[in-house]
Amino acid sequence: MRKPHLTAIGSGKGGTGKTVIAIALAQALVKVGARVLLCDADLGLANAAIQMGLGESGDLPSFIAGLKPLERSVVATAAGFDLLAAPSGSGALANIGPLAAESLCAKLRQTRGYDHVLLDLSAGVDSAVMRFAARADTTLLVVTPDPASLTDAYAFAKLLQKATGARLPQLVINRATSGTEAEQTLAAMTQTCRAFLRQVPQLLGTVPHDRAVHDAIRRQLPLLSRLPLGPAAQALQEIGSRLNEIAFAPALAVAAVR
Ligand SMILES: Nc1ncnc2c1ncn2[C@@H]1O[C@H](COP(=O)(O)OP(=O)(O)OP(=O)(O)O)[C@@H](O)[C@H]1O
Ligand SMILES: [Mg+2]
What we know:
47% of the residues lie in helices and 16% in strands. It is built from ten helices and eight strands. Strand 7, helix 7 and strand 8 form a beta-alpha-beta unit. The longest helix has 27 residues. It has a single domain, classed as 3-Layer(aba) Sandwich (Rossmann fold). Adenosine-5'-triphosphate binds next to helix 1, strand 7 and helix 8.
C-alpha cells in the first residue's frame, strides 16, 4: 500500500475559509475515488466536526500520545472520509509546539489505508503551524481579496520558503466576487513574491464567494453534501481533482499504460 499524500491548508490570517475548503476538498477527493483522512490540526480551536454537525470528532490527543492506534482514533463521516480531531472545545492540544507537530506529521505519513491526509491548520504563522506546512507534500495557502489576508499570506509564503529552503505554497483564492477580483488578488501575490522571494506561487484554483457556503455552515452540513452543484462546490470539486493529479499523476499515468 502506498504512503498517503500530505496536504496542509493554511492562510496566515484567520477566517479565510481553511476549514470550509479542507472539508470540501476531503469530499471532492472521495468523489474521485480516493481514501481520505482529514486531520483537524487547528489544535487549540478544532471546529471541523462542528462545521459538519458531528457529535464525535475522534481522539487526536490519544493518537499523538501513542495511547491509541489511528484506526481507533478516527471517526468515519457520512461524507465518506475519516476525521481525526481533538474533542471540540477541549483546547486539549493548544500550544502543541513545533516538535509535536513534526512528530504528528511523521506518524500520519507512516499510516497506510489512506491516499490523502489533509491537515486543516490554525490561523497564524507560529512555529507549529509552519512546521506542519513545511512537512507536508503540498501546502495550500488560502487567500482572500482582503488586503490583510494578502499581507498575512505573504508572511506565510516567506516563512515556508525559509523553512523548506525552496518551496512556495500553492494558492487557493477564496471568496472572490468576480473574475477580475480573483485576477487582482493573484497579481498582488505574484508581484510581491516575485519581488521579495524571487519565486512565484502557483495557483491551484479559485473559489467564488457563494452564499451556499454560509448556508451549509449554518445547517452544519458539508458543502458538497448540501449544494454540490453550486459555484463554490463545483470549484472545490475541480481543485480536489487537480490536487489528486498533483499527488498521484505519475502513478495514474503508469496504471493507464498497463
Ligand atoms: N467561498 C465562500 N463564500 C462565502 N463565504 C465563505 C466562503 N468561504 C468561507 N466563507 C465564510 O467564511 C467563514 C470562515 O470560514 P472558515 O471557518 O472555513 O475559515 P477558517 O480559515 O478555517 O477560520 P479559522 O482561521 O478561524 O480557522 C465561514 O463561516 C463562511 O461563512
Ligand atoms: Mg478553521
